[in-house]
Write a structure and sequence with these properties.
Elements lengths: L5 H9 E4 L5 E4 L2 E4 L5 H10 L9 E4 L16 H17 L3 E2 L9 H8 L7 E4 L13 E4 L2 H10 L1 E4 L3 E8 L8 H12 L7 E6 L1 H4 L3 H11 L6 E3 L4 H7 L8 H12 L11 E6 L6 E3 L7 E3 L13 H14 L14 E4 L1 H4 L2 H11 L9 E4 L4 H9 L2 H8 L2 E2 L20 E4 L14 E4 L2 H10 L12
Parallel strand pairs: 3-4, 3-6, 4-5, 6-7, 9-10, 9-12, 10-11, 15-16, 15-18, 16-17, 18-19
Antiparallel strand pairs: 1-2, 2-8, 13-14
Bound molecules: 3-isopropylmalic acid (IPM) and iron/sulfur cluster.
Iron/sulfur cluster binds next to helix 12.
Family: Belongs to the aconitase/IPM isomerase family. LeuC type 1 subfamily.
Pfam families: Aconitase
Function: Catalyzes the isomerization between 2-isopropylmalate and 3-isopropylmalate, via the formation of 2-isopropylmaleate.
Length: 469
């Protein structure tokens, strides 16, 4: 048989119909729902008096508006409380599976789906959230949709789509010690730009990707959207299957064997046709730090804040000047000399157990530098429980970090965890846009190890120096 790409395989298996104008109708297997983008969708169903087609194809959870302190006392912020209450009323009315706020399984939707085994290889997965691309780590075609599309999927279990182009991203060489998937993602976006993947689905290949854990693959796919892609994909392999085996919502027994046989057919095939390819040699890569207000404005920890004079077009120069002004940075400043006031370790990019282990390895036996507020927010209740079983919470608390309850938290200013104007933060999240963590706040994107190292020094520092030999 002619080799096919993973994207082509999943697309073909889910194609319901194609119209003459090239629009296709895709069957959607799974739907994740959170409180921000679902209220109007439920309202639309209600108004049209339509039933929800497959309530059990949905998993819902509140994450953006949840407090990460004293949650058991309820939600103090009125707007946040109303959002969560609306979700709870809707899922109850429509019989949709829901993970309540005080349930150990609650967390960020993109951490929870994989953890529960809801995310499976070869499936189509949607959510009214751009970082749905995370689930592509399992070899699922997963992408974010708008609220009206959420309603469409709820009503019909299908979605009109145009086929994207296929982009192969090949990482050559092995990841150097002290570096992780976050550095891969940032380096890639630095290379291709935030529009580099526009109109494409990215499939990540190469030995370094094969060597990544599922957590690492999720970090990589999570950020594919920041490189402009519709989705990110990693072909499933034994690492994928080992992660899924025995998860509550994954197939069990004979069904597992059947599923596994099918999933093996989704393995990466040499010779599959891609429209484009990007190759990145990572063997000499250094830890990455963003300096601007877009994830593409990134450099090595050993580097300096760039000079807008080096921009190739006047528009680029203007954009860089504006970014440096917002970030309050001067060209030529060594990245290691940038001082911080806040550190955030968490989010659907880097809020999983492996990320917390990476940060704890640096924090262990050290102290958060004076004047720094450092938060560690597990991506889910199960991540929190696991971390506590391993004693990571003690390491963080003894070092002076705050240990919080799970949620999106300081990744975006939609809940109580916000930065004040002018505060500079090293963050393990995925977006550094103006005002992302609170109006006037300044975000630098880094890996969990780099964030922890920054917390204990008070400025950026090369995490490789902080790791035991
Ligand atoms: C609020 C939500 C719709 C949004 C998204 O789509 O990604 C958020 O999760 C984000 O990260 O900006
Ligand atoms: S953690 Fe951040 S990026 Fe992820 S879903 Fe929440 S707000 Fe969006």
């Amino acid at each position: 048989m002619t080799p096919r790409t993973l994207y082509d395989k999943i697309w073909d298996e889910h194609l319901v119909a194609t119209r003459a104008d090239g629009t296709s109708l895709l069957y959607i297997d799974r739907h994740l729902v959170h409180e921000v983008t679902s209220p109007q969708a439920f309202e639309g169903l209600r108004e049209a008096q339509r039933p929800l087609r497959r309530p059990n194809a949905i998993l819902s959870v509140a994450d953006h508006n949840v407090p990460t302190l004293h949650r058991e006392k309820g939600i103090a912020d009125e707007t946040c409380r109303l959002q969560v209450e609306a979700l709870e009323a809707n899922v109850k009315a429509y019989g949709v599976p829901y993970l309540p706020l005080l349930d150990d399984r609650q967390g960020i939707v993109h951490v929870v789906g994989p953890e529960q085994g809801f995310t499976l290889p070869g499936t189509t997965i949607v959510c009214g959230d751009s970082h749905t691309s995370t689930h592509g780590a399992f070899g699922a075609l997963a992408f974010g949709i708008g609220t009206s599309e959420v309603e469409h999927v709820m009503a019909t279990q299908t979605l009109p789509q145009r086929k994207s182009r296929n982009l192969r991203v090949r990482f050559e060489g092995a990841l150097p010690r002290g570096l992780g998937a976050k550095d891969l993602a940032l380096a890639l976006i630095g290379r291709i730009g935030t529009a580099g993947g526009t109109g494409h689905v990215m499939e990540f290949t190469g030995a370094a990707v094969r060597a990544l854990s599922m957590e690492g693959r999720m970090t990589l796919c999570n950020m594919s959207i920041e490189g402009g892609a519709r989705s990110g994909l990693v072909a499933p392999d034994d690492t994928t299957f080992a992660y899924l085996h025995g998860r509550p919502m994954a197939p069990q027994g004979a069904l597992w064997d059947q599923a596994l046989a099918h999933w093996r057919g989704l393995a990466y095939e040499e010779g599959g046709v891609f429209d484009r390819e990007v190759v990145l040699d990572i063997s000499e890569l250094a830890p990455q730090v963003t300096w601007g207000t877009s994830p593409q404005w990134v450099t090595d920890i050993t580097g300096r804040v760039p000079d807008p004079a080096s921009a190739t077009t006047p528009d680029d120069r203007q954009a860089m000047l504006r970014a440096l002004d917002y970030m309050d940075l001067r060209p030529g400043t060594p990245i290691e000399e940038i001082a911080l006031q806040a550190v955030f370790i968490g989010s659907c990019t880097n809020g999983r157990i492996e990320d917390l282990r990476e940060a704890a390895a640096v924090a262990k036996g050290r102290r958060v530098a004076p004047g720094i507020r450092a938060l560690v927010v597990p991506g889910s209740g199960l991540v929190k429980r696991q971390a506590e079983a391993e004693g990571l919470d003690r390491i963080f608390l003894e070092a002076g970090f705050e240990w919080r309850q799970p949620g999106c938290s300081m990744c975006l200013g939609m809940n109580e965890d916000r930065l004040a104007e002018g505060v500079r933060c090293a963050s393990t999240s995925n977006r550094n846009f103006e005002g992302r963590q609170g109006r006037g706040s300044r975000t630098h994107l880094v890996s969990p190890g780099m964030a922890a190292a920054a917390a204990v020094t008070g400025h950026f520092t090369d995490v490789r120096r902080w790791l035991e030999a």
